[in-house]
Structures are given as structure tokens and as C-alpha cells.
């Protein structure tokens, strides 16, 4: 017994007899649990375990509640905020795209109508101009035709007069040739020819 | 591209390093078990792993003595810091791997508290999360060969369970006054049966911390003791020791499950008890 207290106590050899006795008691207690019993039921270590466990739990609790949990919850809140704002932005962009498409379609319809109107206008204008030109051309053609007709009539009249004159002259000569020496009344012959030609 | 490939290479290297360390630990544990088995013939001492001894020197265990239990409790605090503080240092909106693990743990326990105990239990979420993380990391750290499992000691789990029991009981009376006693008075039962039920409810209420603590310590201790017994056989059987080693691998897989499940069970029971304190009416 005394031997054991000296080996376990070692440097505590100088201590009083009471303390050495305590050392022996603890030593034998631990020796007993080392052999067969459960270390879990070694009540001598309970206060030690409880002390360190409480310290451990307090440490974890303060680390979590002061650093880790606020940090994680702020990150989660930030992520939620980012998601919400991103979704809102996406919604906004989608609406903008729909608006743009609508206005594009409206512009397209407008442009189409405008183009139709312009082409119609141009067509009408061209038609109008064409009509004016056609009328002008018709008038000119009419004038030219009238002029030509007049000339034809003139030429016809001229030709008739010439033919009458030639016929009169020929008649006078024929009469002279048929009745030589006789006085020929030119006026009578002319009247007879004229009568014949015009008749 | 180049930086990415080197990055993945270093990650690969880190993973390989962890694998080597684990294999090395397994080999050391095996050799230790082997020598252990030979030293005392077939003297298998499965409970030796639970002995609490001073970390420095060879004196007795006083209240402030730094012991192996102290070391492994400190390591579990370190793990909590590593996951929850160091892992979330980026505060990224798009989380890194470690941050998403921390967020997963946070969301898991927070959801559990909210689902089981209700929204008004959320102020106690840090407390419950503390218990969960401590038990989880203590259990997993205990699975490292030659380590010490703090949750295998009834003193530790009893403190955890008594803390929950006292918190819940005091909270029940503070929040509901005498109305908390309606927890034991089953209003939906016939009047004649109610006194009998009240006695049963009362007994079951006081058994709660006992079952709560022994469930955790018992599960962890039993698993580790079985591992040690198998390791002793492996050491004693020589070449035929391959059979117990296969057994160890199988049981180790089971123990990994148990480590997670017991942390979960302890936490969800805490939530159930908290619900009784906040809403005692059946």
C-alpha cells in the first residue's frame, strides 16, 4: 500500500500522511475500474466530465449564437432577397419585352397602313396625270385630224377647180376643132362644162 | 483552365492525404489491437477505451484536470468552429461546399424545431442546435480509431438530458403557470381513468431524462465495446483474424449510422419535450 502511494504520488512524497492516504484511496478505486467494472460508473471522474462538458457546451453555444447563426441567417436572408429581386427583375424585363413587341406590332401595322395609303395616293395621282395626258393627246389628235380633213377638202376643191378648168379648156379646143372658123362663145362653153362637171 | 486543373489536383491530393491518414490510423489500431491481444493472451478489455485518464502526468482526476475527455470535447468544439465559422467565412450568396454543409445542418435542425415544436420554439433553436452539433461531432470523432468518445459516458449524456429536462420543466411552468400540469391530466379520457393516466403520465415524464441519456450513452458505448471485442479476437486469432476484421468493417459502418441517428434522435426528442412545455394541452 505504502509502495503504491509512493509510485503514484511520486513528487508528493513530502505531503502529509492524510493526503497520501487519499491518494491511495483514489488509486485503488481507479485500479478497480481498470480491471472489470465500467469506467462510466466511476463517480470520481463525474465532476471532471461535468465541468468540461458545461464549458464545451457554453463555448459551442456562444460560438453559434454570436458568430455562426447570425452569419448563416444573414446569408440566407440575402440569398432570399437576391432571389426575390432577381425574380422581380425578370418579371419586369418580361413585361418590357411584351410591351416592346406590342409597340413593334403597332408600328408595323401603322407602317403597313401608311405604305398602303401612299401607294394608293401615288396610284391615284398617276391615274389623274395619265388622264390629263390622254385628254391632251386626244385633243391634239382631234385637232390634227380636223386640220388634215380641212386640207383634204381644200386639195379636193383645188383638184376639182383644176379639173374644171382643164375640161373647159379642152372643151373649147374640141369645139374649135369641130367647128373651124366659127366664132366660139367661150362663156357658154364654160357654163356648159361647169354644169356638166358639177352636175 | 490551368489554375482550375491545379486547384482540382490539390483537392485530389488533400482527399488522398485524408485517405492515407485514415488507412494509417486503421493500421495503427490494428497493430495496437494485435499487440494488446498477445500481451494478455486472450484478455479482451473492451471497457478500457472508456477509462478517463489525465492527459499530462499520471495523477488522479480532479475537477479541473485536463483529461482525454477534455481533449476530445475541445476537438468537437474545434469541429464546430471549423464547420460553422471557418466553413461559412465566405458568406457567399452562392455557397461553397463547406458553407452549404453548414447551411444544410442549420436548415435541418431549424426545420426540425419549427415542425416538431412550432414557430414559438425558434428562440430556443441555438440551444437545440448546440446539443445537436456537440453530440454529432462527439459521436463521429469517437469513431476515429484510438480516439475517446465523450458521449459514451453516462455523466455526459445525463448532463445533456438533465439540462433539457430542467429547461423544459421550468419553461413549462413559466409559460403556462399551473396550466402546465394539464400535461398530466388527459382531458380526452373518461373521468374515471384520468387519475390513473395522470400517475402514468407523471412517471413517464420523470423517466424521460433517464431514457433520454441512457439511449445515447448505451448505443455509443455498446457499439464501441463490440468493435473492441472484435478487435481483440482479430489480435488473438492471427491470420484467421481476417474474419473479425470483416466484422469490424461491417459494424463500423453500422456505428457511423448510429452516430448520426443518435444525434438526430436526441435532438428530435428535445424538440418533442419542448413542444410539451410550450403547448401542454393534449
Give your account of this protein's structure.
The complex is a heterodimer of chains A (199) and B (282). By secondary structure, chain A is mostly helical. Chain A has helices at 2-9, 17-35, 46-178, 186-198. Chain B has one domain. At the A-B interface, helix 2 and helix 3 of A face helix 2, helix 3, helix 4 and helix 5 of B.
Protein chains sharing the most extensive interface? A-B, 46 and 52 residues
Biggest β-sheet of chain B, characterized?
Answer: none
General shape of chain A: rod-shaped
Could you give the count of β-strands of chain B?
A: 0
N-to-C order of helices and strands of chain B: HHHHHHH
Tell me the major beta sheet of chain A: none
Features:
heterodimer; A: 199 residues; mainly alpha; 87% helix; rod-shaped; disordered N terminus; B: 282 residues; 71% helix
In brief, what are we looking at here?
By secondary structure, chain A is mainly α. Chain A has helices spanning 2-9, 17-35, 46-178, 186-198. Chain B has one domain (2-278).
Architecture blueprint of SSEs:
The complex is a heterodimer of chains A (199) and B (282).
Chain A (H helix, E strand, L loop, with lengths): L1 H8 L7 H19 L10 H133 L7 H13 L1
Helix pairs in contact in A: 1-2, 3-4
Chain B lengths: L1 H38 L28 H19 L10 H21 L7 H18 L11 H23 L17 H44 L4 H37 L4
